[in-house]
Amino acid sequence: MANSATLTGAWPVAPTPFHPDGSLDLPGMRRVLDCIVDQGVDGVCILANFSEQFLISDAERETLTRLCLEHLAGRLPVIVTISHYATPIVVERARLAKQLGAVAVMMMPPYHGALLKGSAEQTYEQFARVSEVGIPIMIQDAPLSGVDLPVPLLVRMAREIPMVQHFKIESVGTATKLRALIAQGGEAIVSPLDGEEGITMLADLDAGATGTMCSAMISELIQEVVTTHRGGDRDLAVAQYTRILPAINHENRQCGFRSAKAAMLEGGVIASDFCRHPIAPLSPETRAELLGLLRPLDPISLRWGR
């Protein structure tokens, strides 16, 4: 990280491993975290969409929050995703994350399904309530919520809600939105990051992103691109990014959150890449294509447990 406030580099989302019967694989979760530590990234995010948060019970969520923060024990800073439609639940999740030592929490605006969406004022109020807990907040601006977060609203929240400091922008036209956010928000925009597995990362770094929240599939290679770009060698960053882009594209467009688990299964990190119903397993062809793109890159995830 550039300093104690600004989030830089790669912040992979930790996948959640399950046994083939669908139960949580807690030893596997510890191995996932150890693998991510060995990737040399700047931090990790847990319980996000790429952690299959929508397939995990509330009790399991608390178990995983405690396990991850206790197992990492300061080896990496942790962002805990706490999104929920109900504000009291989000606040309680934020309190637990703070109590256990998370560096920040990440939230989408309040939504439930296609039609229950928080208004601009309701969104503002939910983030303000979480801010009272006293832990830095990352706003996740993701298409999944279906809630529009225009730049003026984001800037207002950054300026008026003390703990709103970090932003994960992964909406359409991310680079354009990042430029506007940084220009209009100034110092209130502490850490502008992108997401979407890094599929638009080069343009987003050019636009001023300080880092990226990717998957845990090739985190150390994504970290290289961010570090090189921030160091001022854009030509080398382009070359590094060009090398890994086919794998990122396959992940983003074909596999989604199943990609990191497929790589970690192949690399002996986890014993199963099972995903709970109604998520279908990767087809053999899609899996083979993914692994074929990954092998020349020799990522840590593909050899960590071998």
Question: What tags apply to this protein structure?
Answer:
DapA-like; lyase; TIM Barrel; alpha/beta; 306 residues; eight-stranded parallel beta sheet; two-stranded antiparallel ribbon
Strand content: 5-15%
Distance between the termini: 30 Å
The order of strands across the largest sheet is: 1-10-9-8-7-4-3-2
- SS-derived structural category: alpha/beta
Query: What is the annotated CATH architecture of the domain at 9-220?
Result: Alpha-Beta Barrel
Radius of gyration: 18 Å
Helical region count? 11
The CATH first-level class of the domain at 9-220 comes to Alpha Beta
Helical coverage, percent range: 40-55%
Overall pLDDT confidence: 96
Instruction: List unreliable stretches of 5+ residues.
Output: none
Q: What letter string, H or E per element, gives the SSE order? A: EHEHEHEEEHEHEHEHEHHHH
Q: How would the global form be characterised?
A: globular
Please give the largest β-sheet: 8 strands, parallel
* CATH-derived topology of the domain at 9-220: TIM Barrel
Total number of strands: 10
The name of the CATH superfamily of the domain at 9-220 reads Aldolase class I
